[in-house]
Amino acid sequence: MAVPVQYYLVLSAAVFCIGLFGILTRRNALMFLMSVELMLNAANINFVAFSFQHGNLTGQVFSLFTMALAAAEVAVGIGIILVLYRNFADVDVTKATTLRW
Amino acid sequence: MMIEALVGLCLVGALVVFFAPDEYAGKLAFGWSLLPLALSALMYLNFDGRGNALLGGSLAFEEQFTWIALGPYELTWFMGLDGISMPLVVLSTLLTTLAILSAWTPIDERRNQFYGLVLFLEGSLIGVFGALDFFVWFVFWEAVLIPMYFLVGIWGGARRKYAAIKFFVYTNIASLVLFIGFFGLVFGLGDSISSLALPEIATALRAGELGPLAGGLIVPEQLRLLAFVAMFIGFGVKVPIVPFHTWLPDAHVEAPTPISVLLAGVLLKMGTYALLRFNFTMLPETARSLAVPIAAVAVISVIYGALLALGQSDLKRIVAYSSVSSMGYVILGLVAYTSYGIGGATFQMVSHGLISGLMFACVGVIYNVTHTREVGDMAGLADEMPLTVGALVAGAFAYAGLPLMAGFAAEFFIFVGAFQSTVIAGNGMAVMTALAMFGIVIVAGYLLWAMQRSLFGPFRFDGDYEVTRAARHDIAPLVVLIVVIIALGTFPNDTFFRMITDAVGPLVDGATAEAALGTGGGSP
Amino acid sequence: MAAESGVFTFAPAIAVLPFVSFLVALFAGKYMPKKGAVAGIAATAGSLLLSLVMLAQVASGHAHHMELYTWVGGEGVPFELTFGILLDQLSTLMLVIVSTIAFLVHVFSLGYMNDEGETGLPRYYAELGLFSASMLAFVFSDNVLMAFMFFELVGLCSYLLIGFWFRRPGPASAAKKAFLVTRFGDYFFLIGVVGIFATFGTGTFGGPGVEESFPELAEAAIAGGASVNTFFGLSPRAWFGVLGLLVLGGVMGKSAQFPFHTWLPDAMEGPTPVSALIHAATMVAAGVYLVARMYGFYALLPTVLAVIAFVGGFTALFAATMGVVKDEIKQVLAYSTISQYGYIMLALGGGGYVAGVFHLTTHAVFKALLFLGAGSVIIAMHHNENMWDMGGLKDRMPVTYYAFLSGSLALAGIVPFSGFWSKDEVLYETLVHGLGGSPLLLAAYAMGLLAVFFTGFYTFRMVLLTFHGEPRTDLAEDPEPVRWNVKIPLAILGVLAAVIGVINLVPVHALESSVPEFLHDWLYHGPEGLNGEHYHELITSPEFAGYSAGAIPGLGELGTLFASAGLSLAVALAGSAVALALYRAPAPEEHTAKLGSLKTLLYENYYQDEYQVWLAQDLTEETVAKNAKRFDDGVVDGFVDRVSDVSLVSGHFLRRVQTGIVSNYAALITLGLVVLLVAFGIVGGWFGGVFA
Question: Distance between CA B93 and CA B40 in Å, rounded?
Answer without folding.
Answer: 7
